[in-house]
Amino acid sequence: MPNTPPPPVPPDTPVKATLPAGTPLFRVHRAEWAATAFNSVPAGRLWGGGRFDATEDDAYPFLYTGLTAASAVCESLLRSVPCHSPEPRPVPRSAVRGRRLAFLRLAVDLDVVSLMSGRDLAAVAQDSWLVQAEAHEYAFTRAWGHWIRRHTEPWARGFVWPSKREPADRVAILFGDRCPPGAVEETGAPAVDLSAPEGEEWLNGLLRPYNAQVAPG
Predict the structure, then answer these.
(1) What was the pLDDT predicted at 86?
(2) Among residues 102, 80, 101, 76, which one has the least CA distance to residue 90?
(3) Which of 53, 101, 166, 172 meets the CB 3.0–4.6 Å disulfide criterion with 43?
(4) Does residue 103 lie within any of the structural domains?
C-alpha cells in the first residue's frame, strides 16, 4: 500500500526460499555491461529506478533476473506497453537498442525472501500491491524493499516474486552485498544481441504469444 509505512517489525517470520545452484537465470542488460555484473548505481529516492533498486537510503549492488527468458523479456520490454488492441503492441526500438539477453545460472545455493504468495506477502505486512505496482509507485516499493532487507539481514540474498507481465514465471533481484563472489555465472551460451537482425527475429518470436513485436524501423 503506497501510503502506508512499514510497521516496526514484520508480523511474521519472512518466508525463506532457496534458489539452488544450477538454477537458470536470464538477464536483459546493456551491451556495455558484463552479463554477471551487479548494478552499483543507486536509483533516486523518489524518481526513476526499478521496483527494488538501491537508493541512497540503502546502497547495495543489485541484479534483476528472470527465471525464464520470457519473464526476463516481458519484465524489461513490456513493462510500459499497454495491451488494449487486437493489433500487436509495438515495443519501441529504443528499448532494445544496445541490449542483450544473457544466459546465466547460479553457481551456489542462494536463500531469498519469497514474495510469491499471499501468505508470503502477509509475513512482511504486504499484499500483491508490492509486486504488482506500476512504475509511478516504485519509490514506495523501494522503501518497502529496504525495510524487508533490514529485517532479513544477513541471510536474504535477494527476493523472488511472480512476474507481473508473465505471472506463470518468476523474477528475482539479487543483492551484491550479500551474495558471495561468483554466485552468478555465464553458461557459455552466446548472448542474444536484441538490436541485431537475427536477435530481433528471435525476440519477435518470443514476443509473438504476448501480442507484441519490435516496432518497425
Answers:
(1) 75
(2) 80
(3) 53
(4) yes
pLDDT, tens digit (0-9, with 9 covering 90-100), for 184-205: 999 999 999 999 999 999 999 9
Q: Whole-angstrom Cα distance, residue 210 to residue 166?
A: 9
Is the omega angle on the peptide bond into residue 154 within 30 degrees of 0, that is, cis? yes
CA–CA separation, 108 vs 96, rounded Å? 31
Beta pairing, strands 110-114 & 212-214: unpaired
In 3-state terms, what secondary structure has residue 105? strand
pTM above 0.90, yes or no: yes
Strands 212-214 and 89-91: parallel
Using only C-alpha atoms, what is the Rg of the chain? 17
- Name beta bridge partners: 27: 102
Count of domains in the chain? 1
Which domain covers residue 53, as residue numbers? 16-214
DSSP state of 147: H
